[in-house]
Amino acid sequence: MILNSKIPAGQLQSKWEDYKSTCKLVNPANKRQIEVIVIGTGLAGASAAASLGEMGYKVKAFCFQDSPRRAHSIAAQGGINAAKNYQNDGDSTYRLFYDTIKGGDYRSRESNVYRLAAVSASIIDQCVAQGVPFAREYGGLLSNRSFGGTQVQRTFYAAGQTGQQLLIGAYQALERQIALGNVEMYARHEMLELVKVEGKARGIIARNLITGELERHFGHSVLLCSGGYGNVFYLSTNAMGSNVTAAWKAHKKGAFFGNPCFTQIHPTCIPVTGDHQSKLTLMSESLRNDGRIWVPKKQGDNRKASEILEEERDYYLERRYPAFGNLVPRDVASRAAKERCDAGYGVGTSKMAVYLDFASAIMRYGKVEAHKRGLAHGDDKAVYQLGKDVVKEKYGNLFEMYEKITGENPYEIPMRIYPAVHYTMGGLWVDYELMTTVPGLYALGEANFSDHGANRLGASALMQGLADGYFVIPYTLGNNLADDIRTKAMPTDHPAFAEAEKEVSDRLTRLMSIKGSESVESFHKRLGKIMWDKCGMARNAKGLQEAVTEIQALKKEFWSNVRIPGEISEFNPELDKAGRVADFIELGELMCLDALQRNESCGGHFREEYQTEDGEALRQDDQYMFVAAWEYKGDSRFEMHKEVLDYEVVHPSQRSYK
Amino acid sequence: MEHHTIGLTLKVWRQKNNKAKGQFETFNVKNISTEMSFLEMFDVLNEQLVAENKEPVAFDHDCREGICGACSMYINGRAHGPWHNTTTCQLHMREYKDGDTIVVEPWRANSFPVLKDLIVDRSSFDRIIQAGGYISVNTGNAVDANSLPIEKHRADESFAAAACIGCGACVAACPNASAMLFVSAKVSHLALLPQGDPERKIRSVNMIEQMDKEGFGSCTNIGACEAECPKGISLENIARLNREYLGAVFSGDSQNA
Ligand SMILES: Cc1cc2nc3c(=O)[nH]c(=O)nc-3n(C[C@H](O)[C@H](O)[C@H](O)COP(=O)(O)OP(=O)(O)OC[C@H]3O[C@@H](n4cnc5c(N)ncnc54)[C@H](O)[C@@H]3O)c2cc1C
Ligand code: SF4
Ligand code: FES
Question: Binning pLDDT at 50, 70 and 90, where does residue A375 land?
């Protein structure tokens, strides 16, 4: 099969404009007859469902939480990028495009990324119109900050709660459409199967999580906005419920999986404290605007941070990457932290942590404030207090969260941080129209593989989710549905629905009847450990091969020894979790296979065999300038297809942040 | 931080479904690290129950970062437990001593029926938002974001109200099970912004009407909601809502609602 990415012809800058002016449309009367299923109500799903409802389609939206407002997007902290150039610091659509391509280590599709950059400015306009309370300056205009991998200030934010505010905006738009009867909402429902009729996606089987009943839902098209799969590692910054099930079911029904091994490890998270740990907490990248990262210059230094003098500290990011300093991209910052800790310079009891220190930022801000108040010669204590207030306004909620979790006050003692799994660049392969290899099935937001290549820049996931939902799918869906207007809504007693429902119920019955002795949680932890040790921040061929064998064994054990208490036809969170872990196990195997076939290092994919002398990722452009799109061929069998990436505008080079 | 392990007695509300009668069940847990979060302590309990072939305790949770609003435990008589401005998931076990007894119940309110154990149905909150908790603007209609400057302190105040996570602790804490703090947070968030102005009157009237329809109690200014709200939503918002509401009702403009 040859993958057709359907990139429109023409100049990079005009592709999307041309597409929008020439794509097919569906007239209002026909839209009312067309049903669209949206799985997920995060930024991608809520924005898509609301926009499509406004346009007149009949939409059904699903989420597994008790309310669409609780989708994992709510937890995003730092901000959202847009090429507004409000700071007059040289930003432009092209620069955002270029930064994203470079940040992704040249493993994404130029046309998609350019479109993303081009619509980014409209996202901010849309959100402000909805009442998203972004941070503002005293003049009343919007405020910006910097994120990693860029030299401009293009990140819009709402304290450390940007995701919450953006999602509430999209959620409210969605609720409005629900009130108007354009969208029907199914909360506490989980999609467990895709239904295909004559090769096209035509519906889903969902389980009502409260009653355990299986339901059939028809849709002319199905949109998967089901988020990322970082929880395959068990410990990650993702919400506990984030999972791959919707995407994985689609994969098994013919949707190719793109670059599954591309995982983002975020450099600044609160370190693991023990086996009881259920998740890891992110400390937003925005903190690297002001926080300086360091370790002691001496190995195994057990003194308190405050006892280590300035000249005894190694600000290793500033030392290694003077041009970007603490604001290097995530993959680079994470590897540098791991390198220091592995070499014996780590701090804290576990020695698997580095410091993120705000002392100098507090004093710097304090001096500015003191100056403003004519206190230029104020004593250090007064300056410190003024500076502390500024830092509090910027990051207060993050500092509070840190203190609640660790019991330490980060204004006084530097934060201890360590990298953790955070985001998955991989996902369902989609073409320019966001359609998967199953006609009529689309993937939006983190669930698709598209725009971030091998490493995502901070504040770009929110941008992508909303771009996909508000500004891309409304056009591309119509372009395809225009040919479907004669298709009548299908009754769900169609054999394809019956068959899909039976598959689901057989699988659930099988899970419940194992009645083994090991908990779902325990299997998930074991999978996570294999993945983190062998397919995590550093990977090598031997480890990956071992991981594949270990995961296959784990899968057998799972299906013969998992214990799920409770009943099948009732509210049963253990059963929900079991289904998700079963899918994670299968996905984990594919991730290792993908990491194994990619004999190069790029972005977050670091193969130890391929590095430069000073430990940077070494790409092999002549062999791996492609997207690996995996086709499911049956149990543990996958076939790889390649979408070759053509760089027409940007010239890939060794990424340098020095 | 220094840490150690403790043992606890837990009295937890168990209820099979929304029709069943519930009751407390008592458990003992050991080896609880004081570094754990409250929900991680429940993870330990649940692993113990699975090992004994019993059904784990069902509870809502997702982000475990204090932002999604899913977690909702009523701990020793307090919504979200003893820590100020803190959700259940962010409460940590260093609060407790070896040998402590902790009583854990679901939110109690007629408008939040129990679905199972500690899980309640809060869809009434979504329906209140449906009644008007939004600005009616379709995708693609927006003007340039900076064409509308907003005074910083107004924007900040709006943001402070928008920080509500829709958890329902205010309802659980209120002896009348009133949802006024939740409703007022949304009305304030939108009323403080110029974008929200055109629908201001209809919004407050419709949202209050829906709140009454859902069976939430009325507000008698007790203030328990503010005290237990994990996001520090202030009672001033209720005062503002009252002004908005009265203004709308007396001007008669709410008729076109
Ligand atoms: C802690 C944290 C902080 C972050 N901060 C930032 C940031 O500052 N800036 C930035 O750009 N990005 C950030 N990110 C990344 C960003 O938040 C996510 O990539 C993005 O929100 C994903 O949005 P989404 O709409 O694709 O999916 P999600 O928000 O994950 O939503 C998934 C939806 O799918 C539903 N769902 C899933 N499976 C099923 C199923 N089988 N059946 C029914 N429903 C289902 C869920 O219920 C949910 O509604 C952060 C991520 C984390 C973890
Ligand atoms: S007002 Fe506070 S307590 Fe009430 S729902 Fe909002 S965040 Fe929760
Ligand atoms: S689990 Fe999200 S707020 Fe507690």
Answer: confident
* Same domain assignment for residues B154 and B237: yes
The predicted structure's pLDDT at residue A655: 83
* Cβ proximity of A330 and A604 under 8 Å: yes
Does one domain contain both B100 and B13? yes
Is A503-625 in the same CATH topology as A266-421? no
Enumerate residues 6+ apart whose C-beta is below 8 A from A14.
Answer: none
Q: What is the pLDDT of residue B256?
A: 45
Q: Does the beta carbon of B133 sit less than 6 angstroms from any atom of ligand 2?
A: no
* Confidence at B253, pLDDT banded by 50, 70, 90: low
Residue A2's pLDDT band, with cuts at 50, 70 and 90, is confident
Contacts of B55 in chain A (CB under 8 A): 565-566, 574
Instruction: Work out the pLDDT band at A658, boundaries 50, 70, 90.
Output: confident
Region of residue A6 (phi > 0: left; psi between -120 and 50: alpha; otherwise: beta): left
Residue B181 CA to residue B242 CA, distance in Å, equals 11
On whether both B235 and B168 belong to a single domain, the answer is: yes
Residue B49 sits in a domain whose CATH number is: 3.10.20.30
Optimal mutation site among A74, A157, A235, interface B, most CBs of chain B within 10 A = A74
Give the CATH architecture of domain A266-421.
Alpha-Beta Complex (3.90)
Tally of structural domains, chain B? 2
Tell me the per-residue pLDDT of B153-188, one tens digit each, with 9 for 90 and over.
Answer: 999 999 999 999 999 999 999 999 999 999 999 999
Task: Print burial letters for B32-41: b (CB count within 10 Å at least 16), e (below 16).
Answer: bbbbbbbbbb
Q: Which of B54, B63, B121 sits opposite A565 (nearest CB)?
A: B54
Class of domain A503-625: mainly alpha
- Assess if residue B117 is contained within a domain: no
In angstroms, the CA A536 to CA A262 distance is: 10
Q: What is the whole-number distance in angstroms between the Cα of residue B167 and the centre of ligand 2?
A: 5
Domain span including residue B216 = 123-137+148-251
Domain co-membership, B94 together with B164: no
What is the number of the ligand 2 atom nearest to the C-alpha of B179? Answer: 4
* A140, A470, A570 ranked by CB distance to B150: nearest: A140
pLDDT, tens digit, for every residue of B125-134? 999 999 999 9
The mean pLDDT of chain A is: 96
Instruction: Say how many Å lie between the CA of residue B199 and the centre of ligand 3.
Output: 31
Could you tell me if B81 and B130 lie in one domain? no
ipTM of the complex: 0.97
Supply the DSSP string of A343-365, one letter for each residue.
Answer: TT---TTTS--EEEE-HHHHHHH
Mean pLDDT of the A246-265 span = 98
Residues from chain B contacting residue A172 (CB–CB below 8 Å): 129, 133-135
State what percent of residues in chain A have pLDDT above 90: 93
Residues of B in contact with A67 (CB under 8 A): 69, 122-123, 125-126, 166
Does B131 share its domain with B225?
Answer: yes
CA-to-CA dists, residue B216 to B69, B111, B203, angstroms: 19, 6, 18
**Distance in Å, alpha carbon of B93 to nearest chain A alpha carbon:** 10
Question: Is the pLDDT score of B211 beyond 70?
Answer: yes
Which residue of A lies nearest to B119 if distances are taken between CA atoms? A66
Atom of ligand 1 nearest to the CA of A236: 53
When CB atoms are compared, the residue of A84, A276, A570 closest to B33 is A276
Q: Which amino acid is at A115?
A: R
Contact assessment for residue B7 and residue B31, using Cβ atoms and an 8 Å cutoff: yes
Q: Is the CB of B164 under 6 A from ligand 2?
A: yes
**Gap between the Cα atoms of B39 and A620, Å rounded:** 45
Q: Establish whether residue B87 lines the binding site of ligand 3, counting it when its CB lies within 6 angstroms of any ligand atom.
A: yes
Let me know if residue B68 belongs to a domain: yes
Residue B100, pLDDT > 80, answer: yes
In angstroms, what is the C-alpha Rg of chain B? 21
